């Protein structure tokens, strides 16, 4: 599984293209050949998956019970707008206008790596999320989320 790290500020050009940062490309050695997949995030953002990670995710979804209406609804919502992205000769990807509108992204954006995927936020949305009042006190959140996990320490 890919383990991506970093946070990158980027800008869209007038056509909705974004240059993938070199430091991020280095972490995904096959991105120029295999490309990325972008889809809607759970909040008001987008998510980039390296192609191999998207294939792993959809393989898991395909194993779910397709006779369950909740499964079908989730799969529809999760894959809605999913689009393959390929890098052009200048290392840019063209983001679909409908997805940019969904995420409220106009010009400035933030790429925030999360293990095997990259969250794509409008700069304003990300600052609001991560700024004061946007994320609970990290200490309390850590205790609640991680408190019962034994790390063998």
From TrEMBL:
The keyword Cytoplasm appears for this protein: yes
Origin species: Sphingobacterium paramultivorum
A GO cellular-component term linked to this record: cytoplasm
Source organism phylogeny: Bacteria, Pseudomonadati, Bacteroidota, Sphingobacteriia, Sphingobacteriales
Lineage top rank: taxon: Bacteria
Record keywords, A-Z: Cytoplasm, DNA-binding, Repeat, Transcription, Transcription regulation
Subunit structure: Forms oligomers.
NCBIfam families named in the record: division/cell wall cluster transcriptional repressor MraZ
Family named by the database record: Belongs to the MraZ family.
UniProt xrefs under InterPro entries: MraZ, MraZ_C, MraZ_dom, MraZ_N, MraZ_sf, SpoVT-AbrB_dom, SpoVT-AbrB_sf
Identification of the protein by name: Transcriptional regulator MraZ
GO biological process, one term: negative regulation of DNA-templated transcription initiation
